[in-house]
Write a structure and sequence with these properties.
It is a single chain. It contains 9 helices and no strands. Helix 1 packs across helix 2, helix 2 crosses helix 4 and helix 8 crosses helix 9. Helices cover 66% and strands 0% of the residues. The protein folds into 2 domains: 87 residues, Rna Polymerase Sigma Factor, Chain: A, CATH 1.10.1740.10; 64 residues, Orthogonal Bundle (Arc Repressor Mutant, subunit A), CATH 1.10.10.10. It is globular. It is mostly helical.
């Protein structure tokens, strides 16, 4: 007997979840929630963990009507996540934002050298690079990189044609290349080279 493939394992998990098996809901949560939370954070959600929970409440609420394989399920999950994010951003735009004061985030505070180094590394740097992109390009790149969706899936989530998604991705990559390309100064021939 051979071990089930990824699609077969997903299919059995999906059927179990559609029949109300708690272990199947846990399995789907463990598989997809980290990517959803990362997507929401990367796109500026202030309550990424809370919204991730809301996304999965909506997913699990409508899972009995879902039809498709693993790729379609991933698109289904991120479509719901994207709609929740848009709702959050609209609500923040209408109400404005209110941040509680904390000494760690006070802009008047001078960061230590260690804080400065941490803020310039890793994920923060990548997210800050994505933040320079126009919103459409940023959405495409976050869904492609963080959510690991295909061009087809991104098109479905954003309600755009695949060609438009490819064009946005190409423009985003060009913008990022320009931003991170090192500036080169022409080198002068040395006098010792005999030229």
């Amino acid at each position: 007997m051979t071990a089930p493939t990824g699609d077969e394992a997903f299919g059995s998990t999906l059927v179990a979840a559609q029949n109300g098996a708690a272990w199947a809901f846990t399995s789907l949560w463990n598989e997809y929630a980290p990517a959803v939370a990362a997507f929401l954070r990367a796109r500026g959600s202030r309550e990424a963990d809370d919204f991730t929970s809301e996304v999965f409440l909506a997913v699990f609420d409508s899972i009995s009507t879902f039809r498709g394989g693993q790729a379609e399920f991933r698109s289904f999950v991120f479509s719901i996540a994207y709609r929740r994010l848009v709702d959050e951003l609209r609500m923040r735009a209408r109400r404005g934002t209110h941040d509680e004061w904390s000494p760690e985030t006070d802009a008047r505070r001078s960061p230590s050298a260690e804080d400065e180094a941490h803020s310039r590394l890793g994920e923060e740097r990548a997210l800050s690079l994505l933040d320079i992109l126009p919103p459409d390009q940023r959405d495409v790149m976050v869904l492609r990189i963080v959510a690991d969706l295909t061009v087809e899936q991104v098109a479905a989530v954003l309600g755009k044609r695949e060609g438009a998604v490819k064009a946005l991705q190409r423009r985003a990559l060009e913008n990022l290349r320009k931003k991170v390309a090192p500036t080169r100064t022409p080198t002068k021939p040395s006098r010792d080279s005999g030229s």
